[in-house]
């Protein structure tokens, strides 16, 4: 078995073609060191992969946890991301052409099905050689990254920082906590309080509700619930990706084949699916990809939805309980959640999810001062719409009811306003039902 120490080393002192050199180098305010930050082409992909490995070691992580084929897999990942996700790398060069820092960035993609066409950027592999740290190199690299995000039309950026020193740099650039959250899966979790404990009994459910793993025949229902999640968060259907439900089902099919996808559904006594949730592994960039390191394996939680009439009865907690158990069973070390609304963020936090090292920044399309003492929004993740589950509405043309939904509509009508009063305006609109006073 090839040891880490025997892996090929990359000469980061190589001379860079003069065509990459910038005319005016940056001069450090602390020393007389000067450097240029330039765009790196494919010929520098191996440097990005090598520097990621150097940063891994610098953060105190063991070399034995890096896979033998890390370089090959990471370079292939970069090539694919360049083609599909607008990947771009930046390197910082000394006056002699030595690579003294690097960063990789691209469009954020993969953890969840894309609900809208709004763009979000992500960055990974930010590295500065020890001798060049605290000279502003990382800040200049990140300013180049954020400028590139803006050129792609990104409204926000997201990252997972690797150290407290890195966190301070990102905070000065405007990054802060958001609705991207993580859960340590190595610790037992009380799903009712979020406290880490051992031997806790699972929370109870209403007597007529059963939660079970979902088979492929539930994919369409899961996709509809995913759509409902975003409608209730306040997103108008006009902003959804084209054929959103079909797009979601394609995501599920691919995740089932490659990423150990599993959904869970909650059914009432009639067999109606009153709630669902999904999870799978995330093969993201940098240290978020378990195919080139063995220490971190991230499981993603998404699509948690429960009918309004069945909320606050413990169903959400039990769905989350099933997902956490599933992620632990497949060897995940961390859970990753992206909350679509403040209500969903509260649900995730109730079982122990916290922002931890997840950070986000708002780009606002225009260039603004990058050095800021605070984050722009306490919810700014990806919470693309900063509202609790809201009173979004649908037109009749936007909603196509299933046979199951038609039956439910009939039961709502037969009950007069009783059931409708328990439902949100968004759910009523999705079912083409008028507000309660008009029912009869």
Task: Characterize the structure shown.
The protein has 440 residues and is α+β, with helices and mostly antiparallel strands. It has three domains: 175 residues, 3-Layer(aba) Sandwich (Aminopeptidase); 174 residues, Aminopeptidase; 43 residues, no CATH class. It is built from ten helices and 13 strands. Strands 1-2-3-4-5-6-13 form a seven-stranded mixed β-sheet. Strand 11, helix 7 and strand 12 form a beta-alpha-beta unit. Helix 1 crosses helix 2. It is elongated, with a radius of gyration of 24 Å.
What attributes does this structure have?
440 residues; alpha+beta; Aminopeptidase; 3 domains; seven-stranded mixed β-sheet; six-stranded mixed β-sheet; 13 strands
Describe this structure in a few short sentences:
This is N-acetyltransferase domain-containing protein. This protein is of the alpha+beta class and 440 residues long. The protein has helices at 45-58, 70-84, 137-152, 164-172, 219-232, 244-258, 315-329, 342-349, 403-414, 425-430; strands spanning 26-27, 34-40, 88-93, 99-107, 120-128, 156-160, 180-184, 210-214, 262-267, 273-281, 298-306, 334-338, 358-362.
Task: Reconstruct the topology from this structure.
Elements: E1 26-27, E2 34-40, H1 45-58, H2 70-84, E3 88-93, E4 99-107, E5 120-128, H3 137-152, E6 156-160, H4 164-172, E7 180-184, E8 210-214, H5 219-232, H6 244-258, E9 262-267, E10 273-281, E11 298-306, H7 315-329, E12 334-338, H8 342-349, E13 358-362, H9 403-414, H10 425-430
Parallel strand pairs: 5-6, 11-12
Antiparallel strand pairs: 1-2, 2-3, 3-4, 4-5, 6-13, 7-12, 8-9, 9-10, 10-11
Helix pairs in contact: 1-2, 5-6
